[in-house]
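Shipment paperwork, digital attachment
Item: protein structure file
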Amino acid sequence: MYTLTKNIKILPIVLMALGLIGMAIGFSSAPGSIEEVEQILASQHHGGHGEGHATKSHDTHDAHAKQGHGHEAHGTETHGKSHDTHGEDAHAAHEKHLHHVLHQLQNKPWAALYVAAFFFFMIALGVLVFYAIQFAAQAGWSPLLFRVMEAITAYLLPGGIIMFIILALSGFHMNHLFVWMDSEVVAHDELIQGKTGWLNVPFFLIRAALYLIAWNVYRHFAVKFSKKQDEEPNGNVWYKKSFKAAAVFLVVFIYTESMMSWDWIMSVDPHWFSTLFGWYVFASMFVSGITVIALITIYLKSKGYLPNVNNSHLHDLAKFMFGISIFWTYLWFSQFMLIWYSDIPEEVTYFVQRINDYTLPFFGMVALNLIFPLLVLMNSDFKRINWIIVLVGVVILVGHYIDIFNMIMPATVGGSWFIGLPEISAVLFFLGLFIFVVFKALTKEELEPSGNPYLGESKHFHY
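Attachment content:
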């Protein structure tokens, strides 16, 4: 049985404390008025581009305002009236722009919190799916890793509660993460009006609750059946129940995960949609979850636990990391290429914004999620070297955090983004919470299952 070390006890507490302090500063420093926004934009304009990207948006707006102001009527009788009208229009547009930037900057700590919360939640959900697949496929190589998977999925409940609270606060207009929740915006947007049957706050929160309940109910019974199999190994009754539960869950998950990706991520851009989006989000959570299984397994082996887990098990995990990274790339390119090539304005705008305003994270994400894993893990021998798996795993996790960042930030923060205190603090807090929950769960059961019918095959697994 795993015993928490002193460092593992202290580390999550320190991370959560630092994260809470940083997030508190981030929320308190968000501007509360138009005057504060003007001061921020002025300081950024004089301080250079390095402070952030709001200046770019501000300058673009000013340029349009000046152009509008310069197109004066040529008739001498209407010249003065036209000049005044253009001046009033430019002023109104400037005020509207400042309100928009105010909402973006107020959104920044909320968006940072949301990105980090979803990222760590999706890791646990990705592991739950991988765990269910092992039972549904009656896999013989993986039972030695089941306790690690069960511990990671323990984060599903607290992580899901936090996700629901953030979504509920959005529904109560505590932030502007979901523009379709703003009745004033909906009143002037015919496209969103056509989606109100699906995109309305009560139904949105009901669906979120149903997703979370379904996933956590399966996790509860799957872990219960697995432990019962250790207590009553004869007859494999509990293993058969695990198999049936996994098969049902995977069917339910296909639908709920797709709808979740539409609700929680795609709806921040309510004018845009992609039929591949559910699969795209799934690939990201799946590879992230498998990567975390590999990292925690390597850590436990370094501490003398899991003696029967060998290089072949790690090799298979690394193969999944490699294969799902390629699958993610296929989905990313398919989605991007088709939309970019067709060049339909209401679709391609999604990528135009990210390429123009998020150039580094947009293309950097592709390098981290494809090029690096491809070049390193293509070599079969490297899949058996622990430090290489750890290195690639960290790069993959950073890359997929940036992937979620790219999905959420452009619609919520726009050009006012930069990696700052709110983003770093949110990651630290949820990383600390994740470590605390997962490693606490590891201490509750023996790390090696004893009653699984494929345990012998797993112990003698060699590739």
